[in-house]
Every structure is written in structure tokens, then in C-alpha cells.
Amino acid sequence: MTRAVLVTGGAGYIGSHTCKALRTAGYTPVTFDNLSLGSPEFVKWGPLVRGDTRDPSQVEAALLAHDVCAVIHFAALSSVGESVSDPAIYYRTNVGGLMGLLEGMSRAVCNTIVFSSTAAVYGEPERVPIAETDPTRPMNAYGRSKLMCEDILRDHAAAYGLKAIALRYFNASGADPETEIGEFREVETHLIPRALMALQGYVHDFQVFGSDFPTADGTAIRDYIHVSDLADAHVRAVTALLSGADGGVFNLGAGRGYSVGEVLTEIGRVTGRSMAAPTGGRRQGDPVQLVADPGLAEARLGFQPTRSSLQSIVESAWRWHLRAHPLRNDIA
């Protein structure tokens, strides 16, 4: 029998890609999701359990019913802007959700977890690329909630023997190379899918947040990592913990930054459609530049991004969006 891994938020963007990678690696992914943000049609590689991580009893029941050996925890809220305007829900959902999950895991005697963290814990970095040992000074409630979760995991590891790895993502992007799944939300906020949906006629208020950053073209710089590379890293982290490796915190990025302007240029090249770059004001809490030093993940987890060139990211995302959202007749 294959070993089962509970994937909270497994019906979401990164979670569903990770479920596919787990299945390919010989695990059985069990999606645990309340479907408030996830898509049930993305649950293709294992069973779906409807539940909320804030309820320890629901977590315990799912872990025991499927004889789960480890948990990958994605379920969370992740909009920077929303976390500034409504921070309370981020603490209730992200921190409260982890506490409920850990209580359920304790009851079911499951002590292995891989946690979805974020580069937002660094805030405005002192240097780039950013190493895991650099200061953590998050600029918004989203980043602070994730950093709190990392601290909770560290304390649980020291006190209760929890085996935990926290993976700090930079900008997850792209789509499954076979176009089985992709990035789809009712309210899309991420740059690449939002730009593509604007080209397809589904988004009418696309804008760039900030054109006055101290960068070469005035737009913010980010490290874009392909979602399939992220998924691979999660499988490696689970396998490492189950094999007796120590826990820790790891950056997941490509180690190369691109400005928003460069991304829009690549989108125009891949799609063959010229795209104006309307600008808006900076979002509160947005750093100028976030670029990862992924060396520790490479050394400890064997992580090497193979799909994270900007061309590969945009091409895979465009293929997915053409499948999921056909061009409207008035712009085709």
C-alpha cells in the first residue's frame, strides 16, 4: 500500500499541483479542504475530505480514516492587500488554522508536517539574494501570520517532538505542463494570471501596482518559481522528514529576479499580443525586491528548479489559460 499524505488546501493552486507530484512519487494524496477557495475539479489524484483545519476533531478523523503518515499544510489566506485591510481574519485563519491542525495531529499521533510559508516574512530585505538567516521583518499581517506559524512549529518541535519543515515561497507561477490544472481563483490577484485574463477579455481593470520603485524600469522585482518546481520541493521535504532528516526552514525560489515590466514584456512575446502597462499606486506593504538564495534547499533537499525560466512559466500559464478560458469572440 502507498503511504497517505494529508494535503490541507489540496484543492487550491499549489496544493493541487503538489497532489499530482505526490501521486507521481508513489504517495496517496488526501485533500483536506473546505472548498471556500479551492476547486473540487482540481482534486484528481486522491480522495477529497471536506473539512476545516480550525476544527481538530475533523482533522483527527481524516488522519485516522486514511492512515496518514504526514501532512502538507497549504490551507490559508494569502492576499497581501486584504491582510492590510482586514488583518483579523488572517490571524484567525492562518494562525488559528495551524493550531487546530496541530491539535488534530497530536490526537491522531501524526508528527510530521511540511508548512507552506512565504518570502513575505522577510519584509524589505537588507540584501538580495535573501538567505534563511537574514532578518525577518514582515510588512503586513499576511507575512506576520506566517512567521507566527513558523515560530509555533519551532516551539512544537522543541517541546513535543514534531518533525517540521517550513518552505518560504517566493512568487509561485506557471501551470501544470500537461495543462491538467492551473492557477484559477474567483478573484485573481496575481500578476501573471491576471495579465493573461486581461488579454483574454476576462479582466477589465488590470493595473500594475507601483511604477515608482527604485528599479531600472520603476516596477517591483520578484523571484518567480514554477509551481511544478514548488510541488517537487514539497515531495522532497516530506520524503526527507519521513526518512529521518532534521526539520528546518528553506527558501524556495529560482534565485533570479524579474521586474513586473520584464514579465509583461515576456507575456507580450509569448502571446503575440501587445499589452499596455497601466499603472496604479503601490500596495501598502509591498517590498521593492524579493529574490531568493535557494542554496540551502538545494544542499539539504536536493531541490533544483528545472521549469522556472520566465519563458517556461509564461508559456505554461498561457497554455492553461487558453484551455480554461477560451478567447472571447470580441478579441479573438
Write the layout of secondary structure elements.
Elements: E1 4-8, H1 13-24, E2 28-33, E3 48-50, H2 56-65, E4 68-73, H3 80-85, H4 87-108, E5 112-118, H5 141-160, E6 163-169, E7 171-173, H6 191-200, E8 208-209, E9 221-226, H7 227-242, E10 248-252, E11 257-259, H8 260-271, E12 279-280, E13 289-290, H9 295-301, H10 310-324
Task: Report what the structure shows.
The chain has 332 residues and is an alpha/beta fold. Helices cover 39% and strands 17% of the residues. It is built from 10 helices and 13 strands. The mean pLDDT is 94.
Helix fraction bin:
25-40%
Number of helices: 10
Class per helix and strand makeup: alpha/beta
Mean pLDDT: 94
Compute the CA-based radius of gyration.
19 Å
Shape: globular
Order of strands in the sheet with most strands: 3-2-1-4-5-6-10
**End-to-end Cα distance:** 49 Å
What's the total count of β strands?
A: 13
Low-confidence stretches: none
Topology as a string of helices (H) and strands (E) = EHEEHEHHEHEEHEEHEEHEEHH
Tell me the fraction of residues in β-strands, as a range: 15-25%
Biggest sheet overview: 7 strands, parallel
Keywords:
332 residues; alpha/beta; 7-stranded parallel β-sheet; 4-stranded mixed β-sheet; 13 strands
